Amino acid sequence: MFLPKRCEQRTKWMLAVALMGWLALVGCSVSVDDHNKDGNSKVDIETPFGGIHVNEQADARDTGLVVYPGARVKQKTGEGDSKSANVNISSGLFGLKVVAVEYESDDAPQKILAFYRDQLKKYGAVIECHTSQQAGDLTVKADEQKSGARPVSCHGDTSGSVVELKTGSEDNQHLVSVEPRGKGSDFALVYVRTRGKSEGSI
């Protein structure tokens, strides 16, 4: 399962510090459902300063998008190869929510892209990016000095066969990543929301 591959350095630093701090705290509670009957894991960590919640069984509805007709959730190919995730990290410093689900379809990429271009319009202007890997063009930023949300844009490699449709801003975005696979397609629905210290809960 992929999560944002290129985050702003500030966000990565805060995340690392927060995680280390939470795990070192006395009085934190940890609940781990390593593998439920469907083979999915769930982890909940609560501390006086915030929490981490990870669930491998994500619901596509939490991405704000409907599933392409006839698409199938991709199956795991091995241990640790989850094809969906719902991650929520919250503290007084920052917050991060990521929902992602991977699918496969017998239809060609262009049909799926046309379907989601229409779906994404309700969230604003839709841009198209090209990359060499799923979510390879996903950039996330939690900006403490918000003078206005930064619109999503394309970054890095622009020559790959993976097409990504994005809308929103770098702190509140919807993304659909579509990759050719034989005569069909693999695709992922992703929702990412971040917040800085001065903002409310996600």
**What's the mean pLDDT score?**
76
Helix content: 10-25%
- The amount of beta strand, in percent, is 35-45%
How many structural domains are formed by the residues? 1
Quick summary of this structure?
With 202 residues, the chain is mainly β.
Tell me about this structure.
The chain has 2 helices and 12 strands. Helices cover 14% and strands 39% of the residues. The two termini are 22 Å apart. A hairpin with a 2-residue loop joins strand 11 and strand 12. The protein is mainly β and 202 residues long. The N terminus is likely disordered. The chain has one domain.
Architecture blueprint of SSEs:
Blueprint: E1 6-7, H1 9-24, E2 29-33, E3 42-47, E4 50-55, E5 72-73, E6 84-91, E7 95-105, H2 109-120, E8 126-131, E9 139-140, E10 162-169, E11 172-181, E12 184-195
Parallel strand pairs: 1-9
Antiparallel strand pairs: 2-3, 3-4, 4-6, 5-7, 6-7, 7-12, 8-10, 10-11, 11-12
Keywords:
single chain, 202 residues, mainly beta, 10-stranded antiparallel sheet, two-stranded parallel ribbon, 12 strands, 14% helix, 39% strand
